[in-house]
Amino acid sequence: MKNWEIELKELGFCHIKNQTENQLNDIIFELGNVINETDVIANSESKSLVTSDKYLDFHTDNHLAKYIIWYCIKPAEEGGYSQLCDAEIIFEQLNEKEKNELSKIHVYEHKMYPENKNSNPIVRETNGKIKFYYSFWLAREKYRKLEVFQKWRELIQNSNHTKLKLEKSDLLIIDNHRIFHGRTDIKGERNLKRYWINPDFKPTKTLYNQN
Predict the structure, then answer these.
(1) For the chain, which residues make up each domain, given as ranges?
(2) In 121-145, which positions are buried (b, 16+ CB within 10 angstroms) versus exposed (e)?
């Protein structure tokens, strides 16, 4: 197992500096099928949170993406720091009653693929593995008012986050079922390539793109 694979398994993320496109493609090949490729170019006029230059709160992407890779084409002049939060650590701070309550809260999911569901539970167990799906702005108002949801969000916001900035040709890989990600405000241009990867399958078709 390569060093980056060990780090990804243990920490849930891996930051690899100064990689060529060939090295990027080798890593993608190791991880699985690319189910989506997006140019994440900061734009102050964008109506999409993904491609805006605004602060982005902690969340996961589409649940069909097991891994996410960002490859930096052009770093931000200022800001644009990636922020990461380990959901497994947050989850262990809840008691058993709260864990059970959280598993019953579903969060809306954009239907990019026919295989997408209308919503997913914040936490679920699949084949003995715990998986997380979370986005504050995609949770229904009635769930946001629940005490356990508010505690969950507070723990996320106040946890010890990993904060890093991608420079040109840097890679960031995360386990999308474990690590919540966000970013700080961006000043100036920033251009990243984002890849959603699933080791097990490819969706039958894409219903829309985020570009």
Answers:
(1) 3-198
(2) bbbeeeeeeebbbbbbebbeeebee
List the structure tokens of 49. Answer: 């949170």
For residue 44, the one-letter residue type is: S
Q: What is the CATH number of domain 3-198?
A: 3.60.130.10
Q: In Å, what is the CA distance from 70 to each residue of 125, 166, 167?
A: 27, 9, 11
In this structure, what token pair is assigned to residue 158? 């106040």
pLDDT tens, residue order, the chain (211 aa): 789 999 999 999 999 999 999 999 999 999 999 999 999 998 877 878 778 889 999 999 999 999 999 999 999 999 999 999 999 999 999 999 999 999 999 999 988 888 898 999 999 998 889 999 999 999 999 999 999 999 999 999 999 999 999 999 999 999 999 999 999 999 988 999 999 999 998 877 777 666 5
Beta bridge partners of 83: 163, 182
